[in-house]
Structures are given as C-alpha cells and as structure tokens.
Amino acid sequence: MTDTLEQGDVRVWHSFSVLGLCLGTLLFAASLTPTLLPRDFLLQGVLSGVSAAVGYGLGVFCVWLWRYLELPEPPRRPRIYGKFAMAALCVAVAIFFLWKAAEWQNSIRALMQLEPVDTAHPFKVGGIALVLFLLFVVMGRGIGRAFTFISGRLKPYVPRRVANVIGIVIVGLVLASLVDRVLLRYALRVADSAYAELDALFEDGIEQPESGLRTGGPGSLIPWDSLGRTGRQFVVGGDSREAIAAFTGREALEPMRVYVGLRSAETADERAELALEELKRIGAFERKVMAVVAPTGTGWIDPEASVTLEYLHGGDTVMVAQQYSYLTSWLSLLIEPSYGAEAAHALFRKVYGHWTTLPKDDRPELYLYGLSLGALSSEQSTEIYNILADPFQGALWAGPPFNSRLWSNFTRDRNPGTPAWLPRLGDGSVVRFTAQKNSLDIPGAKWGPLRIVYLQYASDPVVFFDPLAWYRRPAWLVGERGPDVSPDLRWYPIVTFLQLALDMAMATTAPIGYGHLYAPQHYIDAWVAVTQPEGWSPAEIERLKEKLKK
User: Fold this and answer.
1) What pTM value is reported for the model?
2) Which tens digit of pLDDT belongs to each residue from 187-238?
3) Could you say which of 83, 324, 332, 384 is the most buried, measured as most Cβ atoms within 10 Å of its Cβ?
4) Per residue in 248-296, pLDDT tens?
C-alpha cells in the first residue's frame, strides 16, 4: 500500500512541467511588484495565483508544441535531475519575491498616505496564490483529459493530427459556450437585477426636495420615484443658497439640478425631451452657467464636481443629466458602452438645439462634464464640426477611460517631451491636462473661446489601462512618471496587463485624490480654467479648497 502511494506521488510530481513551473514562478514573482493601486493580501493572492497559472499554462503549451513538432528532447535522467534543481530554484525565487512583496506594496501606500501592510502579508499572499494555482492546474488537467478522450476516440477513424485539431475545436467550443451562455450571461443577469433593485431603493435621509428648482420637487414634470437612487442623491445634494452666500460673502442663488432617471421615460430621446421641458419649466436658460452632465454607469454624478461649480458661480448654475444604466462603470464599459453615448448625444442635441435659438447675449454659458464612463459618453455627445458655427464654452472631463477617442488622439499627438500622463497639446489654447498639481496655467498660452480640460491622475487605471500591455510597455511608463506612481513599478509582459486589469476593476478603492476618486480641490482648479468665474482672488480660491477638501 505504501509503495503504491509513493509511486502515485512520484507520478504526480513527474507530471508537472519544468518549463511550466519556471514560467509560472516568473509570472508569480512579477505579479508581486507594484502597479498603480495598492492591493490587500486577498487581491494580491488572487492576482499572483492567476499569474502563476497563466505562466504554467504557457509553459505546458510550449512543451506540447515542441513535442507536437517532434523536436528532440533531452534524455530522461538529466530531465529528472534538472526538474529537482529547477524546482528548488523556483521555490527560492518565490520566497525572495514574497519577502519583497510588502516593501513593494508599501511603496504605493506611502505615496497615497496609507498605513503599511502587516508583517503577515507575504504568508497570506503565498497561501492564497498556491491554493488558486493548484485549483487552476487541476481544472487545466481536466480540460486536457477531455481533449485526450475526444481525440483518442477519433484517431481510429481520422489521421492523428486531424483528430487533435477536432478535439481542440470541440473542447474550445464547449468551454466558450459554458463561459458565455452559463457563467457570463447568468452573472450579468444577476448583476443587472441586483443593480436595478439597488437603484430603486429609497435611502434614509433622502427627502423629496421642497424647492421647485429641483427635479422631483413641487411642479416637477418628472416623478420623484422615477429618478432612481443616484438621481435622488444628486438632486438633493449640494449646499443651499444661504450656505454659499455665507461663505462667499456675496449674494447667491439656489442652484438648479435636473435629472431624468431610466424609469422616467422609455427611450433616451424621450428622456432628453423630458429634461429639456423641465429646464424650461424652472427657467434654467436664464442662469449664468449650464452644465450638461453625463453620469457614470450607475447614473451617479460626483458630488465634488457639482458643489465646486456651484460655489464658484454663486449658485447661478443649472446642471442637467439623464441616466442610461444601472450597472457600475467598468461593467457598462465592457458590456454596453454605446448606451452612455446614445443618452449623452440625445441630451446634448436637445439642450444645444434650444440653446442656439436664444440670443447670444441672453443665454447661459454652456459646458459639458463627465467622470469616468460619463467622460467617454460626453466626448461622444457631439462632433466638433457640428458646433463650430456656435460653439459651447467648454468641457471638463475627469478620469476619461482609456478607450476615449478624443483623449487618445490628444495624448498620442502631444507635444514632444511631455509625458503621456500629463501631455501638452499644441499651444494650449483649446485642450489642457491637469492632475493633483495644477498644470493649467501654461506660460505664454492663452485660452481660445472653447476650453477643454482633462483632469486625470497618473495612478488612475481607468485612464491608463492599456489592452496591449501584455506585450509592450505603456506610454506612461516611458520617461518621467507621475508623482503618485511607485518608483518600483516596472513593466513585465503579460503580468502588467493582468495587474492593470485588476487595478481597473478596483479603481475606486484608492483614497480620494488618487486612482479614480477625484478630490474637490482639483475640481476647483479645473472648473476655474474651464468656466473662468469672476470675482475670485487666489486667496479666496485657496479658502474654498480648504473648506471642501477631503
């Protein structure tokens, strides 16, 4: 019995691929290095386990391909000794990199003013990664046995290589069907249902507005219960006219906020028309500043962006938005990116169309705003040639996703010598970029009539995720790097892609002022550049930053 168990152990050990173990260890080690956001032990363990499994799978594939091409292999005995030697080396490498893991994580946490990880961090990461790696190996072997079974049944009837190809195709189709039709579709149905129920919830402390200047208040054309959770948060948020006046020492108006939820009308065009009628009802086109807002995927609008604009203009503002999804932004970005663009285009077309019919000296200054997926949607809400005859005044786009077309073009065409995370474009008269440190005052540059500002942090993975990072170094890692990016960050093939993908999914876990959470003091700098409010001294701007700073 003992001999049988020992023979089984030997068979299991020899079944492991030496090349797979080596590549798996290398990817595991590289995954412990820092990227844009700090990771706790659970996320790091999952990432490292997946990375090790990917590396192991790549090694197994290379060995299979070598044997499939019938290339010569080293003798059996040297292979056995080599396997033990490489296993010992892999263990040593894994231990060394685990020992460095806490230091690397703390290099990011120190930049973001977070507490360092505890001393048990490497042990927790290693344990989780090992369990996950073994789980993936078992799953991979199950898939391999399914392929062997199918191709083996076919070999008596078709040539060996044809049987192998058919086996691969059948197993691939079954796996794709399981992932797409079972896992993904079921998960998306559950997510959509969960987010829809969450959106319908009425939160404690959110009361229907008493002001007729806010959607859902007296006389509103849009029912209060149709706004959704994020819409209700938006319309009741911000500070009152009295609070704004008390801070500025000047007369102020009650800020106007208009929001149309997914349940308010059936289609994007109908919701946009409803928003326009609501704007007319409250006299919104008599205000000084009007901002057409594209929300994030869930319909959320960053309160920091709203309240800073309202303070800077003494409440003489109106913000209007319509919801297009229940899903969080990264899910909407992957599944339904066109919905946001469709909604933003419909709303802008309605508002802009009416705005252009008004006398130029007797209408609001018109601006666009969007955060995250909202920035992408807002970018797509109009084409520049459609507004050249009568342009709006400007746009503030914060945290634009990596696939934003205009942002990508501007970044690619940046002035030589400027970094990808903070580019300069041309003479700076139309488009400027800024981050934590205000970079909008460019010596010798003058704004034109249309002012566009991108607010982006170098540590924001939604902005700087690169789908080609699996084989090439991202542009933002070339030359000078952002102040909130770890000096220990390095690019590694495959691994950096996996790290950035995880960072993007967890982008809002960073402290405010880093990652994908934008701070009010940075919104203030951006809004000042875009909307050019009057009557504010530098000292007053700093005082406002201190009041709203988080």
Assistant:
1) 0.88
2) 556 555 555 555 555 566 678 888 888 998 899 999 998 888 889 999 999 9
3) 324
4) 999 999 999 999 988 888 899 999 999 999 999 999 999 999 999 999 8
Find, among 390, 281, 398, 403, the residue nearest to 341 by Cα.
Answer: 403
Written as six digits, the tokens of 281 are 């009802």
The continuous run of DSSP H or E covering 365 comes out as strand 365-371
Q: What share of residues in the chain are helix, strand, coil (percent, to 5)?
A: 55, 5, 35
Q: Can you tell me the distance from the alpha carbon of 198 to that of 57, in angstroms, rounded to the nearest whole number?
A: 40
State the SS3 of 92-148: HHHHHHHHHHHHHHHHHHHHCCCCCCCCCHHHHHHHHHHHHHHHHHHHHHHHHHHHH
Helix axes 121-154, 160-177, angle to 10 degrees: 130
Look at the chain and count its residues.
Answer: 550
Whether residue 35 contacts residue 507, with contact meaning beta carbons closer than 8 Å, is answered with: no
Sorted by sequence, the CB contacts under 8 Å of residue 285 that are 6+ apart come out as 279, 354, 355, 358, 363, 364
Which among 370, 367, 206, 238 is positioned nearest to 315, based on CA atoms? 238
How far apart are the C-alpha atoms of 465 and 469, rounded to whole Å?
A: 8
CB-based contacts of 499, cutoff 8 Å, min separation 6:
31, 35, 47
Other beta carbons within 10 Å of 104: 21
Three-state SS across 177-208?
HHHHHHHHHHHHHHHHHHHHHHHHCCCCCCCC
What is d(CA 444, CA 230) in angstroms, rounded to the nearest whole number? Answer: 42
Is there a contact between 22 and 94 (Cβ–Cβ < 8 Å)? no
Cα separation, 32 vs 95, whole angstroms: 11
Q: Which residues, in sequence order, are CB contacts of 458 under 8 Å at separation 6+? A: 36, 421, 422, 435, 464, 476, 481, 482, 483, 484, 485
At 215, is the secondary structure helix, strand, or coil? coil
